[in-house]
Amino acid sequence: MINDRGGLAIATLIFYVLAILASLLLCRKHGFGRNGGWIFLMIFSLIRVAGSIAELVAVNDPSVASVTAATALAGSGFSALLMAEIGVLQRLNEGIPAAVGRIPPIVFRVTVLSLIVGLALGINGGVQQASSSQNQGQTYSHVAGILYGVAFVIMSLEALFTGLRIRYIIHGEQKLLMAIAAAFPFLVVRLVYTEFVYFEFMSGTFNAITGSVVVEAFVSYFPEYVVMLLFLVAGWFTPRIERHQIHSVEDGYNNTGSKYGNQTSGRIEHA
Fold first, then answer.
1. Confidence bin at 244 (pLDDT 50/70/90)
2. pLDDT class of 241 with cuts at 50, 70, 90
3. Range 38-41, long-range pairs (CB < 8 A, 24+ positions)
4. pLDDT for 57-109, tens place per residue?
5. What tens digit of pLDDT does each residue of 124-183 get?
6. DSSP designation for 208
7. What is the pLDDT of residues 169-222, one digit of tens each?
């Protein structure tokens, strides 16, 4: 019999199957490179589909293996969603003239690395706690929570830095920055849920498997739905821009001979 948690898993499964198709269309439009962030939207959707299936199995057969799989997948998707935003930010920064000042690529790599390490530790911590190594699992989870928090702060600063240079962003890509701004409060809510789970604060309520279904639906799933839709819509209405076009914008800015360039230096006309 399907309970409330099973019903939530079914709704999530349907949503992200559709999101996979939409993400695939975006990847075909913009390319499958990491810098666009679109590939991470597809990875995130795949993780959520797998997690929903694992949760349905755990609801009907709550064995150690099924609960462990559901726990690991529940905690692994958020990092992919954050990586998608980082990819979008990196794409926007590539179009900002270097003379104006843009974020060095190493900063994005460090942010992604923090998320990857946090993801690995979070999965390991969940597996350990689902078995018998409670103390070691808690340590891994706590470190994962710290890394997620650090990565989110760095990502927020990256978004702020990029937003302050909105006049230099390539024409047509401002929608992506608006999507990032609109997604920010929802990502904050989702991060708070992650931290509560990892640090076991109010563990009776904030738990991916045994916690409140209502809390999980509104504090974990709903923010992810909104962020996913924001990125999908923004990506769909953003024109495809080739890397050689970005380089031509850079050259055009450098040839103005002005300290501030001109306000149309970031403009690319599309047929």
1. low
2. confident
3. 38/84, 38/87, 38/235, 39/87, 40/80, 40/81, 40/83, 40/84, 40/87, 41/81, 41/84, 41/228, 41/231, 41/232, 41/235
4. 887 877 767 777 777 787 788 899 999 999 999 989 988 888 888 999 999 99
5. 887 776 666 667 778 888 899 999 999 999 999 999 999 999 999 888 888 999 999 999
6. T
7. 888 888 999 999 999 999 999 999 989 888 877 666 777 667 788 888 999 999
- E-assigned strands of the chain? none
Residue with the bigger pLDDT between 260 and 17: it is 17
What is the distance in angstroms between the CA of the first residue and the CA of the last residue of the chain?
Answer: 55
Long-range contacts of 188-194 (CB under 8 A, 24+ apart): 189/219, 189/223, 190/78, 190/81, 190/219, 190/220, 190/223, 190/224, 190/227, 191/78, 191/148, 191/149, 191/152, 192/219, 193/219, 193/220, 193/223, 194/75, 194/78, 194/145, 194/148
User: Hey, how many other C-beta atoms are within 10 angstroms of the C-beta on 230?
Assistant: 20
Closest CA to 173 of 234, 260, 108, 90: 234
CA–CA gap between residue 173 and residue 53 (Å, rounded): 36
Distances (CA, A) of 139 to 112, 126, 134: 21, 10, 9
- Report the Cα 7 to chain-centroid distance in Å: 24
The residue whose two tokens read 């997948």 is 73
Q: How far apart are CA 100 and CA 94, in angstroms?
A: 12
Q: Which two tokens stand for residue 192?
A: 């708070």
